TrEMBL record:
GO molecular function: NADH dehydrogenase (ubiquinone) activity; NADH dehydrogenase activity; ubiquinone binding
Lineage of source species: Bacteria, Pseudomonadati, Pseudomonadota, Betaproteobacteria, Neisseriales
Record-given protein name: NADH:ubiquinone oxidoreductase subunit M
Origin superkingdom: Bacteria
Chief location category: membrane
Localization of this protein: Endomembrane system; Membrane
Transmembrane segments: 6-24, 31-51, 83-104, 111-129, 135-155, 167-187, 207-225, 246-268, 274-295, 302-322, 334-356, 376-399, 411-431, 457-476
Sequence ranges assigned to domain NADH:quinone oxidoreductase/Mrp antiporter transmembrane in this UniProt record: 131-421
Alphabetically ordered keywords of this record: Membrane, Transmembrane, Transmembrane helix, Ubiquinone
A GO BP entry: ATP synthesis coupled electron transport
Gene Ontology, cellular component aspect: endomembrane system; membrane
Source organism per UniProt: Crenobacter luteus
Family indicated by similarity: Belongs to the complex I subunit 4 family.
Topological relation to the membrane, as annotated: Multi-pass membrane protein
Length: 497
């Protein structure tokens, strides 16, 4: 067991990224790739003990580290994970490894900078999930914007500058109010930025509402919830394959995690009071955005809108109160859905990237009959398509089923509306799959396509195994989070005014 595992999962990829940057220009691109791969493998390996050594019988923070950072303001380098945040760190480290492999041959210019951006962003994201000091969280939360901004803006498509600026401004403006909320809580907690100390505060209802709005504007943009979702399709369409994989698999989860770590435990009364609004916005995302996905002609846009719809399921689960108590089925289902969506969305965007590298088009109409030329790829894409549709035995089914189970306890019509995602998800995913993969060979571009190479197969196979593993044995994930979720529910129940 490592002495400081959380510092290792944060700083290993960051240091590796800086070393990759030091390799210089594209004349040493091969060295940059291998160094990036070594850094990504090391980053994943140091995250594995968080999962294997995690104590399922301990609901509190584990692997805690704390030392002074800015003593004059009582800001500390304070880290720790529970059964909720630990899962996302492991997911992020795994996804980073997949992204490095995905961009191995595809990225030909500024290779070192591309690989370094993902490694540094991976460390910053891990820091956000592990931070137990509000300012430390804010630094990591904002810091991860810079690498993603560069990834979209430098290696993206024709409208990359527009998409990167829109992504940056949406997220930055939303999070400024979060900083104001942290400063208010700092004085209420006796001049402390300790997030766990914030959990014990008793705050007047009127103030809770204002603080909730501040957190909502920050985290809802990140999820993204309807109607502040418009930056995501643009960002996905313009981002390179690796950027889309990380954006969908990891960065969206930071928003939902923020609701779990800040809004629910610190502002329980406001969360209950505003839960109907959150449920309403979530159901709009599930139903309306599912219908929007049905009419997309660009594969990336279709999967991007699919992500918004599936993340609507997550926020629905987080605010599915039974009376004035949180719903264990819905909360655990939301977390499972977040992890599952990480695997499934990364797989879907990788599949689109594989086809784009060969044909240089994302339009559904430019394909047809791909299975005739790429049978192995067609089978792997079918797996991710089925998971995206919520097929039982895949990870996509588990979280949605648990959230629907939780919703039934609250209101049958909530559950009914939420369950439509299983219909719409199957409709838009299978519609796309049918037109792209089946039928006669569409044109000479498709006729020239070759099946997946060993690198592409490795990435898709590993993601596919994760999708199947979680779908067949979700208990391995649920048992890690169960006590932490119960502790959150008990805390919210006790903290109400």
């Amino acid at each position: 067991m490592f002495t400081h595992p959380l510092s290792l999962v944060i700083w290993t990829p960051i240091v590796a990224g800086l070393l990759v940057l030091a390799t210089g220009g594209d004349q040493r691109a091969s060295l940059a790739r291998w160094l990036a791969l070594a850094g990504a493998v090391a980053g994943f390996l140091v995250s594995v003990p968080l999962f294997t050594d995690f104590d399922n019988l301990n609901a509190g923070m584990q692997f805690v580290e704390s030392r002074p950072w800015i003593e004059s303001l009582n800001i500390n380098y304070h880290l720790g994970v529970d059964g909720i945040s630990m899962l996302f760190i492991v997911l992020n480290s795994f996804t980073t490894l997949m992204v490095v492999l995905a961009g191995w041959e595809v990225i030909e210019k500024r290779v070192a900078q591309y690989m370094a951006a993902f490694l540094i962003m991976s460390g910053l994201i891990n820091g956000a999930f592990a931070a137990l000091d509000a300012i430390l969280f804010y630094v990591f939360f904002e810091g991860m914007l810079i690498p993603m901004y560069l990834i979209i803006g430098v290696w993206g498509g024709p409208r990359r500058v527009y998409a990167s600026i829109k992504f940056f401004l949406y997220t930055l403006l939303g999070s400024l109010l979060m900083l104001v909320a942290f400063i208010y809580l700092y004085f209420q907690a006796g001049k402390s930025f300790d997030i766990l100390a914030f959990h014990d505060l008793k705050i007047a209802m009127s103030v809770q509402i204002l603080l909730f709005i501040a957190f909502f504007l920050s985290f809802a943009v990140k999820v993204p919830m309807w109607p502040v979702h418009t930056w995501l399709p643009d960002a996905h369409v313009e981002a390179p394959t690796g950027g889309s994989m990380v954006l969908a698999a990891i960065t969206l989860k930071i928003g939902a995690y923020g609701f779990l770590r800040f809004a629910l435990p610190i502002l329980p009364d406001a969360s209950i009071e505003l839960a109907p609004i959150m449920v309403g916005l979530s159901l709009v995302a599930v139903v309306y955005i599912g219908l929007v996905a049905l009419v997309q002609t660009d594969m990336k846009k279709l999967v991007a809108y699919s992500s918004i719809s599936h993340m609507g399921f997550v926020t629905l689960g987080l605010f599915m109160f039974v009376g004035s108590d949180l719903n264990v089925w819905a909360i655990e289902g939301a977390i499972v859905q977040m992890v599952s969506h990480g695997f499934v969305s990364a797989g879907m965007f990788m599949c689109i990237g594989v086809m784009y590298d060969r044909v240089h088009s994302r339009n559904i109409a430019d394909y047809g009959g791909v299975a005739n030329k790429m049978p192995i790829f067609a089978a792997l894409m079918m797996l991710f398509g089925m998971a995206n549709s919520g097929l039982p035995a895949t990870s996509g089914f588990v979280g949605e089923f648990m959230v629907i189970m939780g919703a039934v306890q609250v209101n049958f019509w909530y559950a009914f509306a939420a369950a439509t995602t299983l219909i719409f998800g199957a409709a838009y995913t299978l519609w796309m799959y049918k037109r792209v993969i089946f039928g006669d060979v569409g044109n000479h571009h498709v006729a020239e396509m070759k099946d997946v190479n060993k690198r592409e197969f490795l990435v898709l196979a590993l993601l596919g195994l994760a999708v199947l593993g979680m779908g067949l044995y979700p208990q391995a994930f649920v048992e890690k989070m169960h006590l932490s979720v119960n502790d959150l529910i008990a805390h919210v129940a006790q903290s109400k005014l």
